[in-house]
Design brief:
alpha+beta; 2 domains; seven-stranded antiparallel β-sheet; about 20% strand; membrane; transmembrane helix; transmembrane
């Protein structure tokens, strides 16, 4: 099939700048994987092989490729090869002010939660050309890229772009060549000199897994230093950075909690406002309401499993409580000092949500001690228990 692409004018309206509306007020001063069947395995392997091939366009004039990529929505393979997990349905600073060739690049992916799993929903890119100071900001999503890919597949050509321009004096076609991936589930943006590339994959629903919900960033310039973790979650090539950072915390030993702290304790990341108000609230409370780093660590220690541990998320969603909403209330309560009489009723909301779930380490005992919602039973259950008599 022959593909033909023509650029068209794009809207500059930006829903991400609208005012958030939520029951929690913002602080005013500042804002085990399931076994795969054979077909599943082959398709995932083929897709992985394509992304590996993309990364392996590695030597352009002797320049080696650095690649950071995400798979299955929430798995992040850093530049050093370490596999981290971003268990948070929000936006995060994957690539931050990273130079590659003549460009300074920012990549901010957005994760969403479908009630079962996390999946890659959006990606915002900011690109500045060093030589002339011109820039481009744009975003893509599974809907934006999906419409482009669908029309391309069904009609053989399209006037659509796989992105929406947000700002800047450069156009998408000034910087990139772009093409669909072989499986039709993603699109690749390649800088015209092949200095760097970015791919964004749509999810293909099968069961409860999203094997193609991914993105990948590759820099083919080994003359530039990589920005370290946690300034960008992709980090650099130094080994064991995330493991060593996690070892420095006394209240948890799981990398997921560390990544969650580092993703939200960053006021420069513009969170969802219309789609996920509670990401914005969680970030704002952690940055501005918590009085110091010690309070932020106590907050993450108490709250992280609400969004970061699958069994606990499953229990909350079973009782129709959105994990990110309960997490935001937990952050609000903890950053306020976990008062027994909570004027915002955040403790009450957390207490009602976690009641009848297995114990949330630290959080359950704090809620019990506060007696902020004494009408609940706090009957802790093992995951294997049903709803029959205890």
């Amino acid at each position: 099939m022959k593909y033909k692409n023509r650029a068209v004018p794009l809207s500059r309206t930006d829903p991400e700048t609208r005012e958030a509306k939520t029951s929690l007020n913002l602080v005013k001063p500042r804002l085990r994987e399931k076994p795969r069947d054979t077909a599943d395995f082959l398709q995932t392997t083929m897709r992985g092989g394509f992304l590996f091939l993309l990364a392996a366009v590695a030597f352009v004039g002797g320049r080696a490729a650095f690649t950071c990529r995400s798979e299955y929505g929430n798995r992040l393979e850093q530049f050093n090869g370490y596999r981290a997990r971003v268990e948070l349905p929000c936006k995060y600073n994957a690539i931050k002010d990273q130079q590659c060739g003549d460009y300074i690049i920012n990549v901010t992916p957005g994760i969403t939660f479908n009630g079962v799993d996390y999946l890659s929903a959006t990606a915002w890119l900011g690109v500045k050309r060093i030589s002339d100071g011109k820039f481009l900001e744009f975003r893509t999503s599974y809907k934006i890229a999906g419409k482009y890919l669908t029309e391309l597949k069904c009609e053989g050509s399209t006037t659509l772009l796989p992105i929406v321009k947000k700002d800047g004096d450069l156009e998408f076609a000034d910087i990139f060549n772009y093409t669909p991936e072989d499986d039709g589930l993603g699109v690749v943006f390649t800088e015209k000199q092949n200095t760097w590339s970015f791919s964004f994959g749509l999810y293909q629903f099968k069961g409860s897994r999203f094997k193609s919900s991914d993105w990948s960033f590759t820099c083919n310039d080994d003359s530039v230093p990589l920005v370290p973790y946690p300034e960008q979650l992709c980090g650099n090539t130094s080994k064991n950075v995330l493991k060593d950072r996690t070892a420095g915390f006394t209240q948890w030993s799981d990398d997921v909690a560390t990544v969650l702290l580092d993703a939200l304790n960053n006021s420069q990341t513009v969170q969802y406002e219309q789609l996920e108000d509670f990401c914005l609230v969680s970030q704002d409370k952690l940055v501005n309401l918590c009085p110091d780093d010690a309070a932020r660590e106590r907050t993450i220690a108490a709250c992280w499993m609400i969004v970061g541990e699958k069994g606990h998320r499953k229990c909350l969603t079973k009782y129709t409580f959105p994990p990110i909403e309960i997490f935001a209330n937990c952050v609000d309560w903890m950053c306020s000092g976990a008062p027994p009489k909570d004027p915002n009723k955040s403790c009450d909301k957390v207490a009602e949500a976690i009641d009848d779930c297995r114990e949330f380490p630290i959080l359950t005992s704090l809620v019990k001690a506060s007696k902020c919602y004494s009408g609940l039973t706090y009957r802790l259950k093992d995951d294997s228990e049903g709803d029959s008599c205890p």
